Amino acid sequence: MSAEQERPRDHDRLRSSLHDLADIAEPADMYERAVTRSRRIARKEAAVGTGAAMVVLVVLASGLWQMPHGKQQNVPVAAAPQSASSVLPSLSSTAQSSGSASSATPGDKDDSPARPPRPDKPANKPKPAKPKSRTLSDMPGHVFYAEHGTGPDVVRMSPSDGNTEVVLSDAPSSVGISPDGYRIAYVSDGKLLVSEAGGETKQVAANIDAVGQAPVWSPEGSRLLVAESAPGVLDLESGEITPLPEGLASGQHFRWSGDGSTLVYATSYCGLKVAGAEAGTSTTVPVLGDKQPQDNPDGLAACKPTSVDATGARVTVPLQTTGEQTTGTDTADAVIDTATGDLAVLPVSGSVVGAVFDTDGNLLVRTEDDGKTLLSLFGPDNTLKVQAKEPASVRGLDLLAYTR
Amino acid sequence: MDAREADYAHFVRTRTHALLRSAYLLTGDQHLAEDLVQEALARTHRAWQRLEKTENAEAYARKVMYHAQVSFWRRPKVAEVMPADFEPDHETGGDDHSDATVERLVLRRALLTLSAKQRAVIVLRFFEDHTEAESAQLLGVSVSTVKTQTARALDRLRAMLPDLRMLADAPEAGR
């Protein structure tokens, strides 16, 4: 019998106290306010949800998505890049949409992360790359996953033996996994904490805000990029935080390239910028977040880079649409060329449900196809090193990071 | 106003107070509660056509409200609470009415020291009387998270509210 059932009277007391307290809430007529707010949301969405699927098909056909990497140039489209349309389907679809939407129940749809619908596969059958190995244990390093929703457990899966372990339960904030895979940084009540595998948890800084900036490890693992009131770099040895140059202070979701030379970050309008790690100037990644339809016909946006390759040439993002809220998924499903803003065509079949670079520039791609979930590890030269079935123990979790 | 809009207006005018009561427990403040309910009602307005029954609409609005309040990426807005607020009121011996008022204030402050998620599970489980599974579904978290958060929240409330004899008999078994 649970403790709860043993103490019904205690809980009755809590119940009645909560009801007493709720009585303080005064009635209010919210109709005008709610409708005004609804119209404001509608205006924000107006630029987005037009003919989304059509646009995707046109773009696919135009070959605009090809990424300028020699070896990949002629690989046909496999997982069609996701794009366009509105997010949070049940929240944002317009009241004018056709009746075919029928009876969405409040319980289900808006639970799914903010993802545009996937377009159908192109007519030409994709030709996925051939892996050098199909054995999971040939994949080096560690793969990290997180549960959906708030307070997720963070799980480490070791491909060498397929075992998983929870490295942090009920994560109180976004987390940063160290490049060696043995430390995890997170923020609890403003305190920046670092937990070591099999070791203790240490507080390394205070007054840190993890909402716009997860703690991000420098490639060599001695520094953490965090946000106090503005983003800065914490030296773990000295405990000192050096603010980023002023020109970068308004950026969010900074990520380091594997060689430490470059930072990629998001702007408040869900575009991406690239900056030298030491410099105060940055360049804008084209297309994404651009509000001009002629420059960004699909209304693509990236509110949150999640990882950068070795040199800053490519970045993984959850692909979103302009005007979309930044809430929703934290899991990248697209690879963007930072020089052109183009989406990489990944030579895999099925739908990409996760993509992340490690500091060496390897790209781990997670795909779903016919109910099977596969992990594909591409080297920095885009060769498919390993492609293997993912262990069932991490089903339902989101891909978070890939480390040594 | 067309029929659908009239239905929505009716829904808002009949259910707002109930939503505000929950929102007040989540935020500890009338204005913040109104902001939260406004957002939930606006999102419900956007989705109104697909919500066939009013019951669906209310469940939908509540779900939006809870998600917004515990969202990972959105700092929850709650009333400020200072540590000194926990000093027990030494002027005991007042009449029942003032005791009740003090009790409410102390509970409000205790709730505000919980994390947003802990507060949400307390409100869902003990104010709205949802099961653990329903609460998990509404918050978009696992049942085990609801269990652990509820246990932690109750521990914390017990520790903070000894004078109230709320949840008085500390559990000796079953934990």
UniProtKB/TrEMBL annotation, chain A:
Keyword tags: Membrane, Transmembrane, Transmembrane helix
UniProt biased composition (Basic and acidic residues): 107-123
One Pfam assignment: PD40
Compositional bias segments (type: Low complexity): 88-106
Bilayer-crossing regions: 46-65
Superkingdom classification of source: Bacteria
InterPro entries the UniProt entry points to: 6-blade_b-propeller_TolB-like, WD40
Region feature Disordered, mapped onto this chain: 1-20, 88-153
UniProt protein name: PD40 domain-containing protein
From TrEMBL, chain B:
InterPro entries (UniProt xref): RNA_pol_sigma-70-like, RNA_pol_sigma-70_dom, RNA_pol_sigma-E_actinobac, RNA_pol_sigma70_r2, RNA_pol_sigma70_r4_t2, RNA_pol_sigma_r2, RNA_pol_sigma_r3/r4-like, WH-like_DNA-bd_sf
Keywords, sorted A to Z: DNA-binding, Sigma factor, Transcription, Transcription regulation
Domain RNA polymerase sigma-70 region: 17-75
Matches recorded under NCBIfam families: SigE-fam_strep, sigma70-ECF
The family this protein is said to belong to: Belongs to the sigma-70 factor family. ECF subfamily.
Domain RNA polymerase sigma factor 70 region 4 type: 106-157
Any Pfam family matching the protein: Sigma70_r4_2
Superkingdom, taxonomy of origin: Bacteria
Protein name: SigE family RNA polymerase sigma factor
The keyword Transcription regulation appears for this protein: yes
Record carries keyword Transport: no
